[in-house]
Amino acid sequence: MPIYGALNPLQGSDFTIAETRVAAGHPSATLDVGLEARLVRMEIITMADTQRPFRHTKIVATIGPATETLEKLESLIRAGVDIIRLNMAHGSVQWVGEIIARVRQASQNVGRHVAIMMDVKGPEVRTGPVDAPIELKVGDRLELHTQPFDAVDDGVHRVSVNYPDLPADVAVGATVLIDSGLLRTKVLETTDHLVVLEVLTPGTLGSRRHINLPGTRINLPALTKKDEADLCAGVAAGLDFVALSFVRQAADIVTLREFLDELSSCAKIIAKIEDQAGVENMEEIIHESDGVMVARGDLGIEIEYHKLPLVQTELVNACQVQGKPVIIATHLLESMIQSPIPTRAEISDVSNAIREQADAIMLSGETTMGAYPLESVEVLKNIVQSIEPSVDGQINRRIRLHTPKAKMLRSSVVLAKELGRAGVVVFTRSGFLAYVLGAMRAQEVPIYAFTDIPSTFHQLMLPWGVEPFLMDFSDDPERTIQNALGRLKERGWCSPGEWLVVITNALADDKIIDTLQLRQVNGDS
């Protein structure tokens, strides 16, 4: 089986992307692509303007009408996107199979792999359809009905709502936000099938508007029937990650994991924190999940807006303590939906996420319906290139390491940092070791993670600083190490004379032991 690498380029306009990353100054190369040992010759053009051939922060791009064609997907992959996100709030079962196959085809055409994340819609509370937009003024009464009702011309506005338990869940005086918070209302009274609201901010109410209930605990299921159907299609098509919306407690993650287990899926679960319950239960949610997405759209409505940066930092820190990946999402470059350049505030927002050392930063509307999807990816890469080298290089000391092997992993990145211009080579089938190494946040120390499991290879595209490679493992551990070192040198990741810290197993007195080795790259490697 040939070797693959997930490319994280820093510049996108002056190079052709091949199956593995190539260091600046590397002349050109050919390499094997295809899991069936099919040989394809591809020219690699160097990233002439970059100081280093890697970036630590990964990029997630959501696909939609602006990017879902084969040609556009190829362009996104060439541009350096690491993970493709499918937003199932706007997707169907049929679309899932078609788009995942198209992403894999685009990867094959380009010669570079990406991971696929399905973001399931999850449960939500919405108003029903209206015949015409309703103009609401301050002080108006608005009734939310959970059962059919008769229209009455008495000056009171009435709409249906899709959540039968709403009257039981909300309390008099509670805030109800409609249409992404544009309409603010207060609960005046409730009955068995009715909630009466007072309008606090004027606006227009259209059909099927989203409702947020800050501070209110609701009893919606973790997965809807649509979610389950979408997941079945996604698992069959080969998804790598599942992002679960509106995670309120660890039990929600357990429900999804049990469903994936029934499908024999090894997809990793990303918990989307979007409301106050999720924030309050962040520790147990992070522990149960494989990663977290700070979904700032709904979260910024559910909590006081001026506290959102504090909650983001708290979530990032909590994930780093537990060694779990964290994705910063929503409105990173919102203006680039229509503008070819970002605002200064957006640049600062992205820079902050990089300084906080989030594992990934995510584009949503910018790449689903925006006029400048590729430019948005370029902007993220340029910001990463400028900001990452300025970040404090201290290793993550907050992470909880419970085993001697985990502490050995920390020693490996400490050694690599002190050596300078050194990376860590790790061999993994589950991906666990590489995830822990990425969680160490060793600035300027790339983690070269080799695996012979395709699903693990894709899932290694998320953690901070990890450069994944797919390669057959030999029965002889030394041969496997030499093959890996040879690939790294051949592809321009390291040069003769440089040092690499290698984490691997060794046989000693008929026992398998963990080893930390120091290898110098030479002309024979």
From TrEMBL:
Q: Which GO terms describe its molecular function?
A: ATP binding; kinase activity; magnesium ion binding; potassium ion binding; pyruvate kinase activity
Keyword tags: ATP-binding, Glycolysis, Kinase, Magnesium, Metal-binding, Nucleotide-binding, Pyruvate, Transferase
Q: What are the Pyruvate kinase C-terminal domain coordinates in residue numbering?
A: 409-504
Q: Which residues form the signal peptide?
A: none
Question: In what pathway does it function?
Answer: Carbohydrate degradation; glycolysis; pyruvate from D-glyceraldehyde 3-phosphate: step 5/5
Question: What catalytic reaction does the record list?
Answer: pyruvate + ATP = phosphoenolpyruvate + ADP + H(+)
List its EC numbers: 2.7.1.40
Residue ranges of every copy of the Pyruvate kinase barrel domain listed in the record: 55-377
Q: What class of enzyme is it?
A: transferase
Listed SUPFAM superfamilies: Phosphoenolpyruvate/pyruvate domain, PK beta-barrel domain-like, PK C-terminal domain-like
InterPro entries listed in its UniProt record: Pyr_Knase, Pyrv/PenolPyrv_kinase-like_dom, Pyrv_kinase-like_dom_sf, Pyrv_Knase-like_insert_dom_sf, Pyrv_Knase_brl, Pyrv_Knase_C, Pyrv_Knase_C_sf, Pyrv_Knase_insert_dom_sf
What is the similarity comment for this entry? Belongs to the pyruvate kinase family.
According to UniProt, the name of this protein is: Pyruvate kinase
Q: Which organism is it from?
A: Stieleria maiorica
Q: What is the lineage of its organism?
A: Bacteria, Pseudomonadati, Planctomycetota, Planctomycetia, Pirellulales
